[in-house]
From TrEMBL:
Signal peptide: none annotated. This is NADH-ubiquinone oxidoreductase chain L. Belongs to the CPA3 antiporters (TC 2.A.63) subunit D family. The keyword Membrane applies. Pfam families: Proton_antipo_M (PF00361). The chain crosses the membrane at residues 20-39, 46-65, 92-113, 125-143, 149-165, 177-201, 221-242, 262-285, 297-316, 323-344, 350-373, 394-417, 429-450, 481-500. The lineage of its organism: Bacteria, Pseudomonadati, Myxococcota, Polyangia, Nannocystales. It is a multi-pass membrane protein.
């Protein structure tokens, strides 16, 4: 099943180069997009062709990963014992498949959004987007912490122009918050943790079972210091938005909606939770965390973030800010799954990376569709909008069901596995968090759906004001066709994950089966 979309007959040599090729394709695409900047149709055609080419490359890795173990490929030795190196493993394939498939849909959506809203600097936007995807591929296929750190930082830098795209004082301030928190946490916490890892273990390579077993067993490293290194890694990954390192996410909502989708579904936050899982499994070691009882605090930190962010979301009238706090909460489901330290919970975390990506990008696409067609940003303004924008709000409803964890959506699958993981770990706290947060998700999402479909739209105001754009917005219909196509596809994929979850559950099972029971 995993190899279904692989193309038969591709030479082994080409397959072995594919992790590096997956980085090269969007990099080359970025240069071609910049060169085509004076011709919008050509520029956007190059963007979509590059995205399709990347999906082809990533798709061809499926059969190879299933057929044979992957060896790390060193691109360049930076210093002795430390290189930029890449390999294939199940968690990275989940991330790469999500990002490469959603880039195509986000590109289609961006064409409608950027043109419909007459956004400036569109060439820079598409170039930075391609560079972001190249960074994502580097993170996904990284074979050691050094490589992950390099591309993690690159992702922060190339997304900064996207966050500040509008160039307003608010956007510049948000960009400073964004870059300050993300690079501050990585440089001040993750980097020292990497140095400590290298000092005590002599390696930064991702290794099944982690790299700390020997120094812990020999007494060279105390459990307390091991726990401190783990904590530095977890809070050094600011992109995971674990409270209190979450403020960058709501601040970044000033960016255009395609950027919000990139931050929340395709690249940035997924880089965070992917890094949390990869570090926990391949550097720290789940069995070492269980043996030395050093993972319990993360369970409570993730649970607290889930509930607190959900409560804050209840009181947000700005639609994108409500979605932002929903993301903070949903990301910590993934961290919670990793913190439970059981194979089934780690499987759940990996599946939720995919389920959240497709569900949340659908919600952001819908928010951008509403803004483009009706210029509405507040939930209190959405009365009856489902009658004028049925496709948009139907897609929003699908995304809502997935965030709550209801069938028939992918969110139900991941929530089911998370609950099984909590039950297996005999964690009453995790079970309580999952139940409480599900109710809170329903409380802040379902009223939006009710308001859109079951309340009457407000009557147009006819006063002394000029009948310009405001009057036109009362008569709006759906957003431009590329936007509607993209959000319909992501909504369909969200439902499709419920009926055909094999691709992502297959990778997640490969990941979990290799863990100690």
């Amino acid at each position: 099943m995993i190899g279904m979309i692989a193309l038969a007959g591709l030479p082994t040599f080409e397959l072995q180069l594919s992790p590096i090729l997956a980085i090269a394709v969007p990099l080359i695409g970025a240069f071609l997009i910049a060169a085509a900047g004076r011709w919008p149709n050509l520029r956007e055609g190059v963007t979509i062709l590059t995205a399709v080419a990347l999906l082809w490359v990533v798709g061809n890795l499926n059969a190879f990963l299933e057929a044979t173990p992957s060896k790390a490929e060193a691109l360049v030795d930076v210093v002795p014992g430390m290189s930029l190196a890449f390999h294939l493993e199940p968690l990275g394939m989940i991330y790469a498949m999500i990002a490469s498939s959603l880039w195509i849909l986000n590109s289609i959506y961006s064409i409608g959004y950027m043109r419909g809203n007459k956004e400036k600097h569109q060439t820079r936007f598409y170039v930075c987007f391609a560079l972001s995807i190249a960074s994502v591929m580097g993170i996904a296929f990284s074979a050691n912490m050094f490589t992950l750190f390099v591309f993690y930082e690159a992702l922060s830098l190339v997304t900064f122009p996207l966050v500040t795209h509008k160039g307003t004082p608010e956007a510049i301030k948000a960009g400073r918050t964004y870059l300050g928190i993300l690079m501050g946490t990585s440089v001040c916490l993750m980097l020292p943790a990497m140095v400590a890892t290298y000092v005590y273990t002599g390696t930064l390579d991702f290794t099944q079972g982690g790299v700390f077993a020997q120094p812990l067993a020999n007494g060279d490293l105390s459990p307390a210091l091991f726990g401190l290194i783990f904590a530095m890694y977890m809070y050094g990954v600011g992109k995971a938005a674990l409270m209190p390192s979450h403020r960058w996410l709501p601040a970044a909502m000033v960016a255009p909606t395609p950027v919000s989708a990139l931050l929340h579904a395709v690249a940035v936050v997924k880089a965070g939770v992917f890094s949390v899982c990869k570090i926990s499994i391949y550097i720290i070691g789940v069995d070492q965390l269980r043996l030395y009882d050093q993972g319990g605090w993360l369970l409570y930190a993730a649970g607290g973030t889930i509930v607190i962010a959900s409560f804050i979301a209840l009181f947000q009238d700005n639609l994108k800010r409500r979605l932002a706090y929903s993301t903070i909460s949903q990301l910590s489901y993934i961290t919670l799954g990793a913190a439970l330290l059981w194979p089934i919970s780690v499987r759940a975390a990996a599946i939720h990376i995919a389920a959240h990506a497709f569900g949340k990008i659908t919600l952001f696409f819908a928010a951008g569709s509403i803004y483009t067609a009706a210029h509405k940003t507040k939930i209190s303004e959405l009365d009856g909008i489902g009658r004028k924008m049925p496709w948009t709000m139907a897609a929003f409803t699908v995304g809502t069901l997935s965030m709550i964890g209801l069938p028939p959506t992918g969110g139900f699958i991941s929530k089911w596995y998370l609950m099984q993981g909590a039950w297996t770990a005999q964690s009453g706290f995790a079970i309580a968090v999952l139940c409480t947060s599900t109710l809170l998700n329903a409380a802040y999402f379902l009223p939006i759906v009710y308001r859109a479909f079951f309340r009457k739209p407000p009557a147009p105001e006819h006063g002394d004001h000029a009948h310009g754009d405001d009057h036109d917005h009362h008569d709006h219909g759906e957003a431009p066709l590329p936007i509607v196509i993209a959000l319909t596809c992501t909504a369909a994929a969200t439902v499709g994950l419920f009926f055909y979850p094999d691709l992502f559950t297959g990778y997640a099972s490969m990941l979990a089966d290799a863990m100690p029971k």
